[in-house]
């Protein structure tokens, strides 16, 4: 599966404002000042790959929590 994301003339900046590391260390979730949330897969050799880009918030993401 390859996620495809479309945006306007400028790519997202993703200036990270908060970070959440999952308990099993398999995924990192980052939030940024322009309202985006990214899900990152983290491999055993510490290679980081973008899994999903979530957008729609209009305010800065300042806190992340597992639900």
TrEMBL record:
PROSITE patterns named among the record's database cross-references: WD_REPEATS_1 (PS00678), WD_REPEATS_2 (PS50082)
UniProt key word Zinc: no
Q: Which UniProt keywords apply?
A: Repeat, WD repeat
Q: Where are the WD repeats?
A: 16-43
Which InterPro entries does the record match to this protein? Answer: WD40/YVTN_repeat-like_dom_sf (IPR015943), WD40_repeat_CS (IPR019775), WD40_repeat_dom_sf (IPR036322), WD40_rpt (IPR001680), WDR72-like (IPR049916)
Keyword Nucleotide-binding belongs to the record: no
**A Pfam family recorded for this sequence:** WD40
Task: Quote a single Gene Ontology cellular component term.
Answer: cytoplasm
- PANTHER family named among the record's database cross-references: RABCONNECTIN-3B, ISOFORM A, WD REPEAT-CONTAINING PROTEIN 7
Q: What is this protein called?
A: WDR7 protein
Organism, by scientific name, is: Thalassarche chlororhynchos
């Amino acid at each position: 599966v390859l996620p495809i994301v479309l945006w306007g003339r400028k790519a997202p900046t993703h200036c990270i404002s908060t970070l959440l590391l999952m308990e099993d260390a398999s995924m990192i979730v980052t939030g940024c000042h322009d309202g985006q949330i990214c899900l990152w897969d983290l491999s055993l050799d510490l290679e980081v790959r973008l899994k999903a880009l979530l957008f729609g918030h209009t305010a800065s993401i300042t806190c992340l929590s597992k639900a």
